[in-house]
Amino acid sequence: MADTAVDQLTEDQAREEFTRLTAALAHHDALYHSHDAPEISDADYDALKRRALEIESRFPELTMADSPSQVVGAAVSSQFAEVRHGVPMLSLDNAFDPGEVADFEARIRRFLKLPADAHVAFVAEPKIDGLSASLRYENGVLVRGATRGDGRTGEDVTANLRTLDDIPERLSGAGWPEVIEVRGEVYAPNDAFDAFNAAAEAAGTRTYANPRNFAAGSLRQKDPTITAKRPLRFFAYAWGEVSASFAETQWDALQALRAWGFPVNDRSRRVEDAAGLMALYDGLQADRATLGYDIDGVVYKVDRLDWQARLGFVARTPRWAIAHKFPAQQAQTVLEGIDIQVGRTGSHTPVARLHPVTVGGVVVRNATLHNADEIARLDVRIGDTVTLQRAGDVIPQILGVVDADRPGRGEPYEFPHVCICPLKTALVKETNASGVESVVRRCTGELACPFQRIEHLKHFCSRRAFDIEGLGEKQLVAFHERGWINQPADIFRLARDEAKLETLRAEDGYGETSVRNLVAGIDARRTIALDRFIYGLGVRDIGEQTSIVLARAFEAWPAFEAACLAAAEGIPSEAWVRLNEAHAVSPRVVAALAEASPPAEDPWPEAP
Ligand code: IVH
Question: Concatenated DSSP letters for 377-443?
Answer without folding.
Answer: HHT--TT-EEEEEE-SSS--EEEEES-TT-TT--PPP---SB-SSTT-PBEEEEE-TT-PEEEEEEE
